Prior knowledge:
Elements: E1 6-10, H1 14-20, H2 25-45, E2 50-57, H3 65-88, E3 91-96, H4 104-116, E4 123-131, H5 133-149, H6 160-164, E5 177-180, E6 199-202, H7 212-224
Parallel strand pairs: 1-2, 1-5, 2-4, 3-4, 5-6
Helix pairs in contact: 1-2, 2-3, 3-4
Amino acid sequence: MEIPEHIAIIMDGNGRWARQNGLPRFAGHQEGVNTVRRIVRECSRLQIRYLTLYAFSSENWHRPEQEVQALMSLLDTYLASEISLLQQNDIRLNVIGDLTRLPTHLREKVEDKVRQTRGNSSMTLTLALSYGARDEMLRAVRSVCTDAVAGVIDPADLDERMFSTYLDTVAMPDPDILIRTSGEQRISNFLLWQIAYTELFFCPCFWPEFGLDHLDSILKEYQNRCRRFGRVSNETFPQ
Ligand code: IPE
Ligand code: IPE
Ligand code: MG
């Protein structure tokens, strides 16, 4: 079986799962953390090199303050409780997004865990926190302009490869698979540059319900997809 190198997930539907079960939205987010644990462990077992999880978008700051605070405190506890799982499984923690918007104590905690796991190399777990693809690209363009004005780079040399090095995802391959749970079929400002040729999977179940069986059937379907990258497939038109 061809194992994808990089899986990205838009973890959606915590709130609807909670409502369906007569629970407050926060309970849905808590249950969502259990799914994160399950999926991180499974991807590590399957030797997936990169797993990227959309945890909090730049637009999610517009949610009611109580919910934003609840999500921040959940992140806080997740970081504290998961460090041993990351260390045991040789998983490096990485973050993308505008961390300057996070509360200072949380940002320091995140940076600390990134530092602590820096030497791990089996899998890179990237959390997209306060992340928006448009914001990421704007920050990249600003840095490119700054470097051009300073004479560090020549604008004529700017190509796709060089531009990629200014993005938060520097040194990561583009996702092979993007999964979104909850039945919504949109990207919601996630990795717009990086998913140019990513295979998309929309799963109707809510994130708290997403299990190893769902992941397994997506991986099986991925085997049958023909990725052409704009070229002509050898299978369809043998040389
Ligand atoms: C995803 O679940 C988690 C975050 C966006 C932080 P939602 O909170 O969006 O759940 P729904 O979409 O309202 O059901
Ligand atoms: C996308 O989900 C963001 C995360 C999963 C973190 P949203 O629930 O915020 O997206 P929309 O509002 O349905 O597009
Ligand atoms: Mg949602």
